[in-house]
Amino acid sequence: MRTLIGASAISRFAGAMMGALLCAIGPAWAGGGGSDGGVSQVFVQQVCDFIGAKSCPQLPTLTQIILGISDYQNTPPDFVRGPLGNFAGICSVSENGSGLPLCTENNAVTTVNRLAPSSVALTDLPNLTPLAFQAISGQAVTPVALGSPGANSFLYPVLTGPNGQHTLNVVFDYTPWTSGSLVKGQAVGSFKFPLVILNSDNTENPVAATLNLTAICTSTIQLQQQTASCLAGTVTGITAKPLSAAQLGIQFGLQLAPSPNSSTPHAIFTLQLPVIVTLATDPVYFGADNSGTPSFTNQFSGQRTAFSKDDLGFTTTFMGQPLMGRPIGVSPYPAPLCPATGCPSTTPPLPIFYGFCATIAGTPAAATFASIGTEGTVYASSPVGQQPQCP
Question: I need a labelling partner for 365 at 20 to 30 A (CA). Which of 8, 155, 225, 324 fits?
């Protein structure tokens, strides 16, 4: 078992490791939307080698690589970017008086939220940090710095729940929707996110799921009250036929209420997604090195892992489908989501898709990559400038 190191050693190691490859990477590191992972993948491999990971995820974009390093180091994405300040400097996503410059077109907007003991409620939002977007009907959604005048759509990702029963909570705070009513048949929202199906041999099959919410009655959205009874959730992308959200253990809700982002009551969507993290598939999350023996301590940061029991997602029980009896859930990694093998090495590169996207009331409202650190912190980041696509 490797010797644990402290915070100062982390900073020195990360700075030395990244500085050694500065010339190989160049200014492109500061951004991170395109299919230019290439040499930068070496950084992920270095961290994987240091903590004794059996295998290392191959991530196609710089933003995902930064998130992957954040997961394994237990360090925020802006810290990972920090040692490369020769090119872009450390950046902040909010004007919070920290003295750091705002993220620019050469960087990315980022959020960090720590593990929470229970599901996220409205009263928790002031203590969480969202990603901010500018959503304009008929246009692609644009990530912006938190506090920007055009910010009107906000995404909060948080891992919640006890060890072995974690759930990924995702809150979409959409301020343009102030209407208090639903009309039967109305397309309310579409949410895209990556899932994995756990096989009996502990391998995983990645799938890109789409949850479509539709009003099944005409109703008033209640202030401060979850409204799921008037919504139907249908999931595509898993099997040939659509499935209900309940068949996959996915919970959702909608309420009309004020939030830290707007005092005017507006639409706030909540999703609760099952999570799959297993010792066999994700040994790093249990502090296991090449021997396979879990220490439940991150070998890089020295922090205790949030995982000492397998998170087995949601086990499907419905009849007549090939998924019956197989667990399904969100993986902790910043999903690559390439449409075919070889991405991004093909010429020209195949499209790369964000992991999490949202369209609300017909308007693109959010687009980001998200991942879970070994201590349960959720990191999310969206590149500004060159961008992947929503599925």
Answer: 225
Nearest 10 degrees: Cα torsion 160, 161, 166, 171: -30
Q: Which one, of 256, 251, 259, lies nearest residue 228 by Cα? A: 251
pTM for this model (two decimals): 0.83
Distances in whole angstroms, Cα of residue 138 to Cα of each of 145, 183, 197, 328: 21, 22, 34, 34
Highest mean pLDDT, choosing among 22-26, 29-33, 61-65, 264-268: 264-268
Examine residue 98 and state whether it is found in any structural domain, yes or no. Answer: no
Residue 250 included in any domain: yes
Point out which residues pair with 172 in neighbouring strands. Answer: 155, 269
- Looking at residue 270, its amino acid is T
Instruction: Quick: pLDDT tens for 241-269.
Output: 899 999 999 999 999 999 999 999 999 99
CA distance 382 to 74: 19
Identify whether 260 is preceded by a cis peptide bond (ω within 30 of 0). no
Across 48-61, b (16+ Cβ under 10 Å) vs e yields bebbbbeebbbbbb
Residue 331 domain-assigned (yes or no)? yes
Taking CA atoms, 249 is separated from 233, 252, 292, 381, in Å, by: 11, 10, 30, 26
| CA separation for the pair 175, 260 (Å, rounded) | 11
Neighbouring residues of 8: CB distance < 8 A, sequence distance ≥ 6: none
Q: Which domain holds residue 353?
A: 111-383
Report whether the peptide linkage leading into residue 83 is cis, meaning its omega lies within 30 degrees of zero. no
H-state helical runs in the chain: 7-19, 22-25, 41-51, 62-73, 77-81
Residue 61 is assigned to a structural domain of this protein: no
